[in-house]
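S41 family peptidase, pasting as requested.
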Amino acid sequence: MNKIKFSERYLWLGATLSLLGIVFILSIEKVKAISTDGEKYLQMLHEVVSYIENDFVEPQEEKKIYIGAIQGALQSLGDPYSRFIDVEEAKELENETKGSFGGIGVELNYQENSFVIISPIEGTPAWKAGLLPQDKIIEINGKKVKSLSQAEAYSMMRGDVGTSLSMKIERKGIKDPFNVNLVRELIKIRFLRSFYLQEKETGYIKLVQFMGKEETAKELALAVKNLRESGAKKLIIDLRMNPGGLLDLAIEIADLFLAPNLEIVSVKGRGGELIKSFKSQVREQKYLDIPIAILVNGGSASASEILAGALKDNKRALIVGTQSFGKGSVQSIIPLSFGAKVAITIQKYYTPSGVSIHGKGITPDHIVNPVAASEDEKFALEKLFKKNLIRPFLESHAEYNDVAVNDFKDLLKKENLKISESVIKIFLFNEMRVGSSQTKPRLDLDVQLSEAIDLLK
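Structure tokens follow.
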């Protein structure tokens, strides 16, 4: 379904950290001594900066020059997750882990002179606009991303709540880039919600992001308890479009479903050296007998992949859906002088079976593709969006029902466009539930969820 749920967790934030790997905040007592060659190149850098300041045809801000040099050093690593974090971003980053921030609500990587979307966060502006994993942002407010530094691009994507932002998007399978217009919001995310699907005696937990620290872990444990008491004999954990978050939270949630002393995830550093292995603990509250299926897709990254990999390899859960994103590296967030920070990739994650997540992702036990629009159907929807017919239609239809479906069919007929009924229903349902965190999942519209429930014994 060509749909983008848009929430820019200060884009900048999601931008390249897919928060999952942002796990260690380290303080530095001293910086490693620079080698003789390093001192030579540092001297050359100072000389170049001096010539720029004194001789370049246009006056330049010294701060901009040095930050550009720092960013250039990090970009030379060829790693989209290692990056410079200025003072303002460092403060925003601290707020972001608490679940409240401004922006458009999307997780991003910076690579090949563009921002690549890991996942839009449900309920945010990016999600509402229908942005998808693997979409590339190639222009921001009319300026090409390749002509901007990362810091400049992040700055352009940030802004006051209520202000607008335009971006040009390049999407696989679509010939021409297209524009989206967004309005920045104060993003307040509810990280978890749960429902009891009585007709299937199944508990459903949607985890939007691995954030909120211990509160989210407690809420999830309570949700499982309540679902069991309601009569749930099966459990679905939905990690689709979950871009990750905190490592500790992924470990704690996995521990809830695993017998003691089973490996959850291992972390290896330079040269493949084992840094640490995280294992399940002895604890009073465990759920070891309820059958579990985990839903993943291309927007499931980092912490989502750690949880899915841990339960899959320990044969504790079936993984259902499509291949996950493949973000399995650890970034140290290291304080620098004067309040800035730097994110450096220092390690990679491995599932209990010894498989690296990074660049590969988690392969489901059962591949189940969602109902998706054909190329012709995508073109039809894009045409409706471009003619500004979608928003007025949604504003005149308060809820998803048969009347809305039939009226949409009439709209298509009037515009001489064709879309299958199954795609119409899913499109309208997704569009009309925007902004509602309490919309119960529909088995008739979610083939992946329905199949996952049927696979559990």
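Note for the archive: The chain has four domains: 10-18+85-186, 36-83, 192-367, 375-455.
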